[in-house]
Predict the 3D structure of the following.
Amino acid sequence: MTEKKVGVKTKPTVSERREHSGRYKHLYTMLLDAIPSAVLLVDKHLRIISVNRSVLEYSQKTTEETIGRRLEEIFPSDLIDQMDIVERIRQVIVNIQPSKWERMTYRAAGMPVRFFYYRLLPFIRENRVEGTLILVNDVTEQAHLMEEMRRMERHLAGVVESASDLIVSVDKKGMILTWNPAAERLSGYLPAEAAKLRFAYLFAEEDRSDIEEILRHTDARDLTRMKECPLLTRKGALIPVSWVFSPLKDSDNRTTGIVAIGRDLTEHQKYELEMYQSQKFAALGVMAGGIAHEIRNPLAICSSSAQFLLDEDVTPEFRRECAEKIYKGIRRTSDIVENLLKYAHPSTTTRKPLIDIVPLIKETQTLVTYQANLFNIKIRASFPKKPVMIEGVGTLLQQVFMNIFLNAIHAMPSGGRLDIDVRTDRSQVHARIADTGCGIPARDIVKIFDPFYTTSPIGKGAGLGLPLCYSIVKQHHGSIDVESVEGRGSIFTVTLPLRHGEGKSRSRTSGKG
């Protein structure tokens, strides 16, 4: 038996060399098949030396049917001609330089169009060009995807270009990135000019700090902000624009800037002004009709009484009665005009004294108690123990509560209950007056504060009570809310702003403004 010496190298046997070569050949085949591109190796005579699985799938042939054949025997002649493969292979071999990637479109009979990129590389062995390596990538799906993306981009660009609103994108530094035609038309700045501007400079100087703050907050808080702010045009004009600011996101959902969408409010404001003017004229017509209706009755009485006074045959008693009717008619007309003036200008006082509203409401309650007893109406009241200080004219506010109390009493001719509840929160006082009367129909709720609107019988009310209350409360920076169910009663809530910390330093009044 021959012993092998340790450390002495021996030459591999023939079988070992074959086994080693087989393993490398198998590995080479595996690597080629793993490449998604089609890989062909051809010799100088365009005979195929090697192919991978992708080539066989495209050609629909086996390895035995492919190896050793010429290219034109395996692939369609029109494809070979389109690639001009013979001339290109010759140039690669002669120049010993790989070709550039080339794009090719091919459509087989009855098949959809496919898109390819291919490249030729010289195959060099032992410093000699033995053939050409052909790499082909099928990019049909990528081409379709790119075309779809381009279509979407064109669509989105068309939307932006066709939009009547201003669409502006701004980077994090406030510089304008994109500028659509609507922005160009309205501002007068071309896109190239706008790209050199900070977005805030498109606004008046007094608005720039607000715009800068909005841009910072939209970026930091990831919020959508809205603001009406005039746009400063190239010619220096200010155009009313309503803006919506939203964060501009990248593919990683990071904020890279701001998108500002602006709507020109010029036509909208013109429309609003026209509507306001038409509403004023309509209200004026209603008011004029109400004034004429209310004044016509006492004037008619005065006119007929005056005609009787011209008759010399009337008795002294009848003459006195006619004079009294004329006097009452003139007083009623005067009251209507005075209330109308109060409705238009409830208070000319710019600085109102500080008053405690609780004694004011209590005093008003006392004044209506006798009439409430006549109608068998029970009054329940709840007031805060501490003073409730507000700025106001006591006589005017007392008129508000007197009118609401009397309306509630008249709504309960058969008796009922009147609840007065006064409560406060941190900044306001709420006076809630509830009755169990006939209530207000839903269709009339929106009309009760209109001048000369009344459901009272003719001659019993001019329809200026609640409108006057509404106007007085508004002059005191407050509000009146109404809830009512027909047949069950109504709730009037008067809300007024509080004044804290000043009640002790001022004299408290019970309603004398």
User: Anything to note?
Assistant: The mean pLDDT is 80. The chain has four domains: 14-138, 163-264, 269-344, 354-497.
